[in-house]
Design goal:
single chain; about 180 residues; Heat Shock Protein 90; two-stranded antiparallel sheet; HATPase_C_sf; Anti-sigma regulatory factor (Ser/Thr protein kinase); transferase; Anti-sigma-factor_SerPK
Length: about 180
């Protein structure tokens, strides 16, 4: 399993660096070319959300990204701890991006859209901080991430929020061609 760790400061310009790094590592890991834009956009959304939260609450704290290529086999117990599906003791081959921020978590609201995990409810009805670029509330970015990534987990805790996104490795274009022809 290859793992790349990247730490960025809470500056909007560093989101581009994170997107470029994630795209390069995803390409090296074997993500299908047709999925690379989804990876780049999802990582950009997750990092932008983290940067906005940090700028409002803890601008001096760093944001951490982990880019994980699970193409190599792992022991079955590793699959159980992080929720990765396995087949006959072999780990599913996935590319995972984990974006961890240290911004304080707000109180959860009472409603959660069905397409977003329950942990994401903390962002509902929260306004973009002054000077925010999007003018949209953070749940829009989380909804975009949920639409772009194959698997998404949003885990708020006392130290911030962890957004996990993953995509299957392999050439999806070749699989589509086989199904059609």
């Amino acid at each position: 399993m290859a793992r790349v760790q990247l730490t960025i400061s809470a500056l909007p310009a560093h989101v581009r660096t994170a997107r470029l790094m994630a795209t390069a590592v995803a390409r090296r890991a074997g993500i299908a070319e047709s999925i690379l834009d989804e990876v780049r956009l999802a990582v950009g959304e997750a990092c932008s959300r983290a940067v906005e939260a940090h700028r409002a609450h803890c601008p001096d704290q760093s944001i951490r990204l982990e880019l994980i290529d699970s193409a190599e086999s792992r022991p079955p117990e590793a699959d159980q701890t992080n929720g990765t599906a396995s087949n006959n003791g072999q780990a599913a081959q996935r590319f995972e991006v984990v974006v961890s921020d240290q911004a304080p978590v707000e109180e959860p609201s009472s409603t959660v859209p069905p397409h977003i995990s329950e942990g994401a409810s903390i962002y509902m009805d929260e306004q973009t901080p002054p000077g925010g670029v999007s003018g949209l509330s953070p749940e829009v970015g989380l909804a975009v991430i949920a639409g772009l990534a194959d698997d998404v987990s949003i885990e708020p805790n006392e130290h911030g929020t962890v957004v996990r996104m993953s995509w299957p490795l392999g050439n999806a274009d070749a699989e589509d061609t086989e199904l059609v022809g």
